[in-house]
Amino acid sequence: MITYELALLLRIMPKTELKSVLKRTATAIFDKGGIIRRLDNLGAQKIPYKTASHGSVHREANYFVFAFTAPPTKVDSLIHECKRDVDIIRNRLYKVVEEEPYLCTLDEEMLPAPYRPEVIKMIEEAKKNEAKRPKFKYNTGLDYYPFQK
Length: 149
Prior knowledge:
InterPro entries: Ribosomal_bS6, Ribosomal_bS6_sf, Transl_elong_EF1B/ribsomal_bS6. By secondary structure, the protein is α+β, with helices and mostly antiparallel strands. Helices cover 32% and strands 34% of the residues. It has 4 helices and 4 strands; from the N terminus they run βαββαβαα. The protein has helices at 15-31, 75-84, 106-110, 117-132; strands at 2-10, 35-53, 56-70, 88-95. It has a 4-stranded antiparallel β-sheet with strand order 2-3-1-4, covered by helices on one side. The longest helix is centred in the N-terminal third of the chain and has 17 residues, at 15-31. The protein is elongated.
């Protein structure tokens, strides 16, 4: 299953109502076969611009992020369900891309540039590309282009 992040902007409301909205969203994720990995509360903040949703204008919102794994076939129905919810101002779903581990050693970084493995590899690729590049023949007997300033 793929990991997703669901960013939610909820309207300003008391904690008890806020809890019920989060519970509804979590239940919707569980019903779709998802597993919640993390829930982040980013607090109540001003929205960068006024936003109209479900017939009312909002200038502030409660920001929450659900991190969950779910089958890709069920994600569209989850988004549709969030759009119908009156208490949710905005929702965005992002696919989490796992970063490849990068091993970095101080010994390699302290070497002068021509001795680093990455630089040696780039020099070899440049030599290969130079051999493939066609040479221009001038037919003038000169070793330079005479009309260049």
